[in-house]
Amino acid sequence: MTQLPAPVLTTNALPHALPDCPNARVILFAMRRMGAHGLSDARAAHGFFTGFGEAFRRPLLLMRALMADLAGNATVPIAIAPCCCARMTASEQVLLAILARVETRTEGARLLMEDLLGQRHVDGALASAAALAAAFADEGRPVCL
Question: Which InterPro entries did the record assign (predicted)?
Answer without folding.
Answer: DUF6628
